[in-house]
Design goal:
The protein has helices spanning 4-18, 33-39, 140-148, 163-175, 181-186, 196-205, 219-239; strands at residues 24-26, 46-50, 53-58, 61-66, 72-77, 86-88, 116-122, 125-130, 134-139, 289-293, 296-300. 39% of the residues are buried. α1 (4-18) packs across α7 (219-239) and α6 crosses α7. Mean pLDDT is 93; it is low at 260-266. The chain has two domains: 4-148, N-terminal domain of MutM-like DNA repair proteins; 163-300, Helicase, Ruva Protein, domain 3, CATH 1.10.8.50. The strands form three sheets. Strands 1-7-8-5-6 form a five-stranded antiparallel β-sheet. Strands 2-3-4-9 form a four-stranded antiparallel β-sheet, sandwiched between helices. The chain is α+β, with helices and mostly antiparallel strands and 306 residues long. Bound molecules: zinc ion. Zinc ion binds next to loops. Zinc ion is lined by residues 281, 283-284, 286, 301, 303-304. InterPro entries: DNA_glyclase_Znf_dom_DNA_BS, FPG_cat, FPG_N, H2TH_FPG, Ribosomal_uS13-like_H2TH, Znf_DNA_glyclase/AP_lyase. Residues 243-263 are annotated as: Disordered. It catalyses: 2'-deoxyribonucleotide-(2'-deoxyribose 5'-phosphate)-2'-deoxyribonucleotide-DNA = a 3'-end 2'-deoxyribonucleotide-(2,3-dehydro-2,3-deoxyribose 5'-phosphate)-DNA + a 5'-end 5'-phospho-2'-deoxyribonucleoside-DNA + H(+). Residues 272-306 form the FPG-type domain. This is DNA-(apurinic or apyrimidinic site) lyase.
């Protein structure tokens, strides 16, 4: 599932390509036809992410998209329409196509392929949304209700809030959860934007037992975990991939194995524990473990996360 860094990249890209200019919005698949009609022919004013939600403000409405497990946006257009070709779940590369323009000078899109929930167009290109778990047009009041249910997002600091305020909010939410820490991190009302990979990797680097009840996490460790996740998510926004294996963290002298070990011998290893179950921990040598927790696979090292 796309984690918070992807949604923030998506918001930036939609901001760059569409905000401030009139767009056309349709639902080739039909399921979003009524919503698209509310957005069509207007100028989107702002695109932003909060955790795993994308919100695009259009007049009195807010377009909400949650990609879920399978959702993705694909982008195509002329040379001025640059950015990632897809954001979200991995998709096949787009076919080559010829740039044609209509009488108004707008790029003519190719016929929709597959179930395109929403297609948004600018004069220079278009974006297709497929497979989202949520795609809806909200009133301002409904938007406020969605936001109110979300925990703090390390990638967004509300105006007037300090880092300490953010940490306090996170720690306070953890302190009210009896669930295992690993479950609390996936709870979007505790912290918004963390998914399975960031959960596994942050807990590993902070040497935290995933089964520890969330409310037992000492305040200073909650603060360290927040900072860790913030750094990781920011790296993800900058680089477009989740890569948590970075020197000197832990110091190379502590590592028992070469970092450059993964399914591709040439590839640099990206993750410490995520999907490395059954292989030796790079920090302590113990076998990395995996098990189901609330329907998602949890990866951790029983040797050094205690
Ligand atoms: Zn270990």
């Amino acid at each position: 599932m796309p984690e918070g860094h992807t949604l923030h990249r998506l918001a930036r890209q939609i901001d760059d390509l569409f905000v401030g200019r009139m767009w056309k919005v349709t639902s080739p698949q039909g399921r979003f036809a009524a919503g698209a009609a509310l957005l069509d022919g207007r100028a989107p004013e702002q695109a932003e992410a909060w955790g795993k939600h994308l919100f695009v403000r259009v007049g009195h409405h807010v377009w909400q998209v949650h990609l879920g497990l399978y959702g993705a946006f694909s982008f195509r257009g002329d040379e001025s329409f640059d950015g990632a070709a897809t954001l979200g779940a991995p998709r096949a590369a787009a076919q080559a196509w010829d740039i044609r323009r209509d009488d108004d000078g707008w790029i003519v899109p190719t016929a929709p392929e597959g179930a395109v929930r929403a297609r948004i167009r600018s004069p220079h290109g278009w974006a297709d949304l497929r497979g989202p778990s949520r795609c809806a047009v909200l009133t301002a009041e409904e938007h406020r209700e969605v936001i109110a249910r979300l925990g703090p997002d390390p990638l967004r600091q509300p105006e007037g809030a300090t880092l300490d305020d953010m940490i306090e909010s996170f720690a306070g939410r953890l302190a009210r959860r009896r669930t295992p820490l690993a479950a609390a991190l996936m709870d979007q009302s505790v912290i918004a934007g963390v998914g399975n990979i960031y959960r596994a990797e942050s807990l590993f680097l902070e040497r935290l037992d995933p089964d520890m009840p969330a409310r037992q996490l000492p305040a200073e460790q909650a603060a360290a975990l927040w900072r860790r996740l913030t750094d990781q998510l920011r790296d993800g926004v900058r680089e477009g991939v989740i890569r948590t294996v970075r020197t000197p963290d832990p110091p190379p002298s502590e590592a028992t194995h070469d970092y450059r070990v993964s399914s591709h011998p040439e590839a640099e290893r990206r993750h410490w524990v995520y999907r490395h179950h059954g292989t030796p921990c790079l920090r302590c040598g113990e076998a990395i473990a995996a098990r189901e927790l609330q329907g998602r696979t949890l990866y951790w090292c029983p040797g050094c996360q205690r």
